[in-house]
Amino acid sequence: MKLQPLADRVVLKQLEAEETTKSGIVLPGAEKEKPQQAEVIAVGPGGVVDGKEVTMQVKTGDNVIYSKYAGTEVKLDDVTYIIVKQNDILAIIK
């Protein structure tokens, strides 16, 4: 992994968008909505952020749901990653 997040940052790799709806309708490329689900690729060390102690609650390999407009997209080796703060992650999918 070439990306090492700092402080309370988490590197995510977005999961693929659904190509069909639940009723079986095939969606063309432009109509696909970006999913808000991603796999955790790397996790920062946590520590003191803005005067508060931050303990990292996610780990590498977790599948998570994150805020729709959160993070910064970074392209590395033809793969797009999203770097978000831990508090932009809404839930862990179990």
UniProtKB/TrEMBL annotation:
Kinase listed as a keyword: no
List locations, semicolon-separated.
Cytoplasm
> Where is this protein chiefly located?
cytoplasm
Under the heading PROSITE patterns, the entry gives:
CHAPERONINS_CPN10 (PS00681)
GO CC list: cytoplasm
Q: Which GO terms describe its molecular function?
A: ATP binding; metal ion binding; protein folding chaperone; protein-folding chaperone binding; unfolded protein binding
Q: Could you tell me which HAMAP family the record lists for this protein?
A: CH10
**Protein name as annotated:** Co-chaperonin GroES
Q: Which organism is it from?
A: Butyrivibrio hungatei
